Amino acid sequence: MEKKRDIRSLTREQLLSYFAEIGEPRFRATQVYEWLWQKAARDFESMTNLPKRLRTRLEEAFVINHIRVDQMQRSADGTIKNAVKLYDGHIVESVLIPTPNRITACVSSQVGCSLDCSFCATAQLQRMRNLNPDEIYDQVVAIAMKRRAFFNGP
């Protein structure tokens, strides 16, 4: 059985080409792109403005790999650290750091890091690979959810 390709690895132009190849109108590619990159859809079934037959076809052809927050820690000063498991099993960290005037987010862009932040486990790892855009995006979505949950805001 052939391994399914992660649909988020396709560019917008590649999505347009794919939808043209399968005889779907161009606007369907735009709808899927918006579900993936604006609405953070985790599966094809949630793409409710697509016909069921198209959602099924996408499910048969593609996968949507997502990160998973493996562990979360919250310190006394309100800092939140997420240990994030990537779809290939590697673990990186993203950190939410509150200060009196703002909240700062630090997300990993690599497995391993060349910076030496003492608070971050990713910095302790040997640099292995760059993260894909979807892995970085998923960290931002996860950390934004934590910010809303712990710091009351949009």
What does this structure look like?
- This protein has helices at 12-21, 26-37, 52-61, 133-151; strands spanning 5-6, 62-63, 68-74, 80-85, 91-98, 103-106, 110-111, 129-130.
- By secondary structure, it is α+β, with helices and mostly antiparallel strands.
- The chain is built from four helices and eight strands.
- A hairpin with a 5-residue loop joins strand 4 (80-85) and strand 5 (91-98).
- It folds into two domains: 5-63, DNA polymerase, domain 1 (Orthogonal Bundle); 68-151, no CATH class.
- The strands form three sheets. A four-stranded antiparallel sheet has the order 3-4-5-6, covered by helices on one side. A two-stranded parallel sheet has the order 1-2. Strands 7-8 form a two-stranded antiparallel ribbon.
Provide the descriptors you would attach to this structure in a database record:
single chain; 154 residues; alpha+beta; DNA polymerase, domain 1; 2 domains; four-stranded antiparallel sheet; two-stranded parallel sheet; 4 helices
Topology:
Layout: E1 5-6, H1 12-21, H2 26-37, H3 52-61, E2 62-63, E3 68-74, E4 80-85, E5 91-98, E6 103-106, E7 110-111, E8 129-130, H4 133-151
Parallel strand pairs: 1-2
Antiparallel strand pairs: 3-4, 4-5, 5-6, 7-8
Radius of gyration: 18 Å
Helix content: 25-40%
β-sheet strand percentage: 15-25%
User: How many strand segments?
Assistant: 8
Order of helices and strands: EHHHEEEEEEEH
Look at the structure and give the mean pLDDT.
Answer: 88
Strand order of the largest sheet: 3-4-5-6
Number of H/I helices? 4
Could you list the spans in which at least 5 consecutive residues all have pLDDT below 50? none
